[in-house]
């Protein structure tokens, strides 16, 4: 069957690296504003009516947005099995923490309005805050640990073993990356609230969104300087067969400070990614100040695209480096599924992904418009 596949193995591997990036960026943009709105809830809404308005800006769409997380996890499982095996076992506690926080979101939506009691509703409001704040931080911490390298090894039989613990994930650089993620998604959430609400809620959203946008710029710059001048990166020093079998032992890897910025010297066009990260955040700050809600939201999405792309392009061709055995590091060329599997998955993706995009666009068109206390009073299905 491989003789009839019109795309060669190395190209399919790169395509699936790009698709993985698209799915992760899609999740950060689509569900990122849900997380940002949740993290902002206790601060932009001062009474029950305002908090209902904030909750109902994301209430009708958060489930559909979370599809992107499922797609990303599925892509890792099917296209990059060794990456799935190492990351989902090694980062198990961190992922459980994210899942527990995400579980609080639907529970909070459903239970909050069941009892007309201030204390009851405040408890669930803080649960919704946790459901936004914790995943926003932990996802950034995970990216930081990918850049640092994870403490895993792979034996001669391709069996992975992880030699770290949860608290080792909370290094200063990883926490910095977590704060970048939090500020980035809070900016995105604030832009969404500015677009979907009116009055005091929108005004407070603009204020917090501007602070978060500036925080994104400053923290992203600090992370970049850390990567360039203090962080050890990884480089493949041997010739790697791009069409070879998925076996990590067929390469040699070294580490050196500043290696993660090497791709930008070899491929200068990649500088577009960090530029988008900075310009998108600065534009969001300016547009939120000028109350240009739609453009502010689009620019915050551009910032997310730039920041995540910067990490992905810096790592290429690595998917997950190993801090204790650099040779065991997983790359695009030695951690993929078979040629046939990648091809069949690509055909399925070309069919189903446009359907997902179409129904997502339809839902957002139906749900367009601002959310107000009056509109909630006319909607019996509102939270």
SSE diagram, text form:
Layout lengths: L8 H22 L1 H13 L3 H11 L3 H4 L1 H13 L1 H10 L1 H21 L5 H31 L3 E3 L5 E3 L9 H25 L2 H31 L2 E5 L16 E5 L4 H5 L5 H18 L3 H23 L2 E3 L9 E2 L7 H28 L6 H5 L6
Antiparallel strand pairs: 1-2, 3-4, 5-6
Give a structural overview:
By secondary structure, the protein is mostly helical. 68% of the residues lie in helices and 5% in strands. It is built from 15 helices and six strands. The protein has helices at residues 9-30, 32-44, 48-58, 62-65, 67-79, 81-90, 92-112, 118-148, 172-196, 199-229, 262-266, 272-289, 293-315, 339-366, 373-377, and strands at residues 152-154, 160-162, 232-236, 253-257, 318-320, 330-331. A two-stranded antiparallel ribbon has the order 1-2. A two-stranded antiparallel sheet has the order 3-4. A two-stranded antiparallel ribbon has the order 5-6. Strand 1 and strand 2 (160-162) form a beta hairpin. The protein is globular and about 65 Å long. The relative contact order is 0.15. The model has no long low-confidence stretch (mean pLDDT 92).
């Amino acid at each position: 069957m491989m003789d009839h596949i019109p795309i060669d193995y190395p190209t399919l591997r790169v395509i699936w690296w790009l698709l993985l990036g698209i799915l992760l960026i899609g999740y950060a943009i689509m569900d990122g504003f849900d997380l940002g709105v949740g993290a902002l809830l206790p601060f932009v809404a001062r009474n029950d009516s305002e908090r209902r308005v904030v909750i109902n800006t994301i209430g009708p769409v958060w489930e559909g947005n979370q599809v992107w997380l499922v797609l990303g996890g599925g892509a890792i499982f099917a296209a990059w099995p060794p990456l799935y095996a190492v990351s989902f076992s090694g980062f198990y506690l961190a992922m459980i923490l994210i899942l527990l926080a995400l579980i609080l979101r639907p529970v909070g939506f459903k239970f909050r309005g069941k009892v007309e009691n201030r204390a009851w509703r405040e408890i669930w409001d803080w649960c919704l805050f946790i459901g936004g704040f914790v995943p926003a931080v932990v996802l950034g911490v995970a990216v930081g640990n990918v850049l640092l390298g994870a403490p895993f090894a792979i034996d001669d039989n391709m069996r992975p073993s992880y030699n770290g613990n949860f608290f080792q994930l909370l290094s200063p650089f990883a926490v910095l990356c977590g704060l970048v993620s939090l500020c980035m998604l809070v900016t995105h959430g604030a832009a969404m609230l500015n677009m979907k609400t009116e009055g005091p809620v929108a005004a407070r959203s603009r204020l917090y969104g501007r602070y978060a946008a500036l925080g994104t710029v400053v923290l992203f710059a600090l992370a970049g300087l850390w990567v360039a001048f203090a962080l050890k990166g990884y480089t493949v020093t041997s010739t790697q067969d791009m069409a070879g079998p998925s076996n990590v032992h067929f390469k040699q890897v070294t580490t050196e400070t500043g290696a993660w910025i090497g791709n930008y010297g070899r491929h200068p066009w990649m500088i577009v990614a960090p530029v988008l990260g900075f310009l998108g955040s600065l534009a969001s700050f300016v547009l939120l100040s000028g109350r240009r809600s739609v453009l502010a939201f689009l620019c915050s999405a551009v910032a997310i695209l730039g920041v995540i792309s910067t990490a992905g392009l810096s790592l290429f061709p690595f998917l997950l480096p190993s801090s204790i055995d650099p040779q065991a590091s997983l790359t695009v060329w030695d951690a993929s599924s078979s040629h046939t599997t990648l091809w069949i998955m690509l055909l399925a993706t070309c069919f189903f992904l446009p359907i997902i995009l179409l129904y997502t666009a339809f839902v957002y068109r139906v749900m367009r418009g601002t959310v107000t206390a009056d509109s909630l009073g006319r909607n019996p299905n509102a939270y």
